[in-house]
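Dear support,

We are seeing what looks like truncated structure output for some complexes. This example has two components. We would appreciate it if you could run it in full and send us the complete token output so we can diff it against ours.
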Amino acid sequence: MERSVCLSPQEKEQLLSYFETQVMQVLNWLAAFSPDEEGGITRLLYTDGWLETQLALAEKMAGFGLKTEFDNVGNLFGKLQGEDLDAPSIITGSHIDTVVQGGMYDGAYGIAAGLLALDYLQRQFGKPKRTLEIVSLCEEEGSRFPMAYWGSGSIAGKRNFEQIVHLQDSYEVFFADAMQRCGFGEGTGRDSRRSDIGAFIEVHIEQGAVLEKEGIAIGVVDTIAGQRRLKFEVIGEANHAGTTPMHMRRDALEGVSVMIQALRQEAVRVGAPLVATVGRLQVQPNVPNVVPGKVIFTVDARHDDEQALDSFCQWVMKEFTSLADQRQLVIQGTEWFREEPVPMNDKLKKQMDDVCGKLAISSKRMVSGAGHDAQMFEHICPTAMLFVPSRRGISHSPEEYTEPRELAVGVLVLTELLYRLGYEGEEL
Amino acid sequence: MERSVCLSPQEKEQLLSYFETQVMQVLNWLAAFSPDEEGGITRLLYTDGWLETQLALAEKMAGFGLKTEFDNVGNLFGKLQGEDLDAPSIITGSHIDTVVQGGMYDGAYGIAAGLLALDYLQRQFGKPKRTLEIVSLCEEEGSRFPMAYWGSGSIAGKRNFEQIVHLQDSYEVFFADAMQRCGFGEGTGRDSRRSDIGAFIEVHIEQGAVLEKEGIAIGVVDTIAGQRRLKFEVIGEANHAGTTPMHMRRDALEGVSVMIQALRQEAVRVGAPLVATVGRLQVQPNVPNVVPGKVIFTVDARHDDEQALDSFCQWVMKEFTSLADQRQLVIQGTEWFREEPVPMNDKLKKQMDDVCGKLAISSKRMVSGAGHDAQMFEHICPTAMLFVPSRRGISHSPEEYTEPRELAVGVLVLTELLYRLGYEGEEL
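Here is the complete output from our reference environment:
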């Protein structure tokens, strides 16, 4: 006979109501740490507010009967020991840090969801077959130091202490000093690198508006998109806006406006999941009565297919150069950031599809255009990600919002998946 | 028998050589006042450097036998008294102030040219029939206080002390206090308003590249173009650049790039002398991985025909609104600056055409896209302007440059015109 965390629509409804209340309690409790003056949350790595949050979380995990432990970079784990001591752990969680003036869901929701799932499973079903863990990763955003995925990357062996030696924040505080101030660093406690993880499941808000617009409850992440960030400098000639006839101009901004159009048209032609954005643009001298002599701008391009992404970026370089040449503008383009696409684990994705189907919860496979800790874990274990809707796709803002019921659905799907992996012994 | 300052090609060549040396001496001498650290000249109204320059100029004028006088705003006049004491004065000159990091020709050239013309005429031909004056206008650029044409406007009755009561510079120094510190202001010396001017002739660098590209020595200004400055705010939705599919975006910058294209195409279609420029543009939040939610930008449009300018600006408002609507962007446009076209005096223009023809100097009628002191004088007397070429059209920059010989040609044409008006008694 099939087992599940909820076997009837009534049970499902009860569980959703329960999770709805609980998840808001945990999220509101977390949001009360590191509030900023603009009504958002600013919880940067290794700040006082960050440390206070991790310590409070450790206390809460212990209160839920989990065995807590910090590693030497400040990742916090809460462990629900399984019967099989040799089986690798199933880990869920997300990051505790925020951007400057962030919202209360990004990262925090994944921690709250994992905490509630483990608590519920333990109370309902007792000791699991395989060890389940919740992790509050120390850092993902790269908002204080120029280094993202510090928490998950340290676990996956993709980040190490050598890489941060010279890093400073905007107040010239060194990374290592900030870390040490919180009691972490090389030689303090357990090495962050792990090789005993059986699977990693991350629950997160979508940070896009696709689920909301399509009215779907759960996004099963197929692939985390690869990213390329390019920077262009276009040089024309700054001239008097009143005395320079139209045909004598070498207007850098006019040239760039054509490039922005071309970029959009080509992105639409290539089609989803490709996205391309000119997000940052600066004009020089930027004075109303001077023809722009120089424009510096960025292109952010993402796709789940590496080859398609590369060929798009090659097209951009070639097309922009040609458009500049036609206007006697000088252009220089460089790639300053690159991340390859990371496909999520097939078996876990199918499990997740199946969980949603069984629980009668609408879901769709989708590409994550944003980067996530999951892409670090995928290097060392089968990894999966689950999205819930984000109101109007707004994220990295105090306006970030997801309905409590939508959050509860994500917790339910995670709980069921962890039940299958931890208690039913589903093979990975 | 026809009289002229030079009756043969030999005389013309000698005079040009003479003016070439002299004009560079005066310009280099002037440039030595108020040099800035960037290799340019920064001579802002009522600063120490400004006062030092005006006082040194007064001394030089007196040394040339001119009777000097400051008015109560700091305009400096040097008078060559004519035989007819009742006839209104013929005045030439330009402004002594500069922009921040300006060049050595803008304004200063008109003063140097007038000074040399009067000196030469006096030494060659003695006392004129009509009084000739050179003026070093205190201010034109509006670079220190938010008020341009203070010198010429005060003479023409278009500026007055009431208008500057609340004005402060960027260091919060009040206009009146700065003026008083230099010994000027209400109740100090002669009232600036004049009604005894028979004509005003201004010599200036073109600040555009038309004369240079067409290989023409003198531009006879037909009309000083009217100006409209518009400001637009375009609001879309700031969203995550990775998670927002192309078809779900309301990208303010993409919309504005279409507007920039449309503006240029329509300006080219309408044709010269219309010019239209997007010179200032700011993106919000201006981050590489966020779809721009807001763009603020300016449009500067100029034309010598007021109706054509108005109808162009109406087109801009309508077209931008329509382009915004098509993209579900919200747009707000306002006009924040307006100046009507000012045609120069017909008889003086014809005199100037004729002078150039007689001296075998190439010339063309042209629109001044830039504003000048001459547009203030035109309210109270017949006014004319003459341009010499500007290398690559560069102005308001230390790189501003005109060949000494080109400068000399301008001085020669001015000298001949003043000869006709002052000594030959040409009717105005």
